[in-house]
Amino acid sequence: MSDDANAPYESAVLGKDGLDALIRVLAEEGRTVIGPTVRDGAVVLAPLESGDQLPYGWGVELEAGRYRLRPREDGAAFAHSAGPNSWKTFLHPQRERQWTAERGADGGMTVTTEAPDAPAYAFLGVRPCDLRAIAVQDRVLASGRYREGGYQERRRGAFLIVAECTEPGATCFCVSMGSGPGAQGGFDLALTEVVDDEGHRFLVRAGSEEGARVLARLPRRPADAATREEAERAVAAARERMGRAMPPVDLRALMGASTEAARWDDVAARCLTCGNCTMVCPTCFCTTTEDVTDLTGEHAERWSRWDSCFDLDFSYLHGGPVRSSARSRYRQWLTHKLGTWHDQFGTSGCVGCGRCVVWCPVGIDITEEAAALQKEREEREEREARAEHEETEP
Known about the structure:
With about 400 residues, the chain is an alpha+beta fold. It has two domains: about 10-95 and about 110-240, no CATH class; about 250-390, no CATH class. About 35% of the residues lie in helices and about 25% in strands. It has helices spanning about 15-30, 90, 130-140, 150-155, 210-215, 225-240, 250-255, 265-270, 275-280, 325-345, 355-360, 365-390; strands at about 10-15, 30-40, 40-45, 60-65, 65-70, 95-105, 110-115, 120-125, 160-165, 190-195, 200-205, 220, 285-295, 300-305, 315, 320. The strands form four sheets. An eight-stranded mixed beta sheet has the order 3-2-8-9-10-11-1-12, with helices on both faces. The chain has a four-stranded antiparallel beta sheet with strand order 7-6-14-13, with no helix packed on it. The chain has a two-stranded antiparallel sheet with strand order 4-5. Strand 6 (about 95-105) and strand 7 form a beta hairpin.
């Protein structure tokens, strides 16, 4: 796991052979290497055995409700935006068995707690926004009063390799959320891909002792000034090319002042309450439990699985659901993500990856909704100020 981001660890330049060697070295050390690859018309995260499986030459076209692969001429490996799954899939699995129960011959029950599956992961190609998302989930699931043991075990052994963003998508807004496109810390290794007349290479920085140790095993050369400058330029240029932005206001205060906004009716008329936004979100963490038995009734299991605040039964109490309307469920999601998450965990629940925009079937845009709420708030405050002035005017 990552150490102090400001430690003076080594930086170097890797070629494509060095990236392949990185995967091989991590696998030799017993780690399951997960990274981006092309499958089923998307860039997805999956186990990697070699660098050849990386999505060299593939980019993506993104818009609200739209995702398409597109070929690239430069052969870059990490010039694509966030895909449909995130590292949450591996650290906080969609389904996880909690315990099993067996009925004995004497009619008694033996309950066995399930040991969490905790492979030693190495995550290759973590975007800075997703690095922030991992930190957010660390706060939710690995610290505080209610800790999730399986998450803690998987996270404790994870080796994080960041790929700084040089090609933001049309739905990315990490800059306005303070989570990218550069990586400031919390990683073991950070890569910045450079493709120019000098060749295809990766500037790599170690961010921990473990990262420096792994880097020392790779074929590399010292980081030269030209590569450093081009890497910095590419990340800086990405900062200026964000496709979206949150309104530059205190989002926490905005959500608190907008609980009765008319805009919720507008978005509710479009929202399918399908929960896609929560499933693809790298920070949403809600789960429910389900109990299953076999046909004989002699064996039972309890499973934890992902749930969504868009599910009608999510807020079910005796007598019915607390949030029965699409308006109330969308409002719950957005005000929690941008507002009350601060009260619970001391940070925003949004990292600006844009997945919820892309994978919404009807193209609802979280940045557009926040801007509409801010506009409605300003108009309301202007009306109230005008009315107060008229009342006090002689």
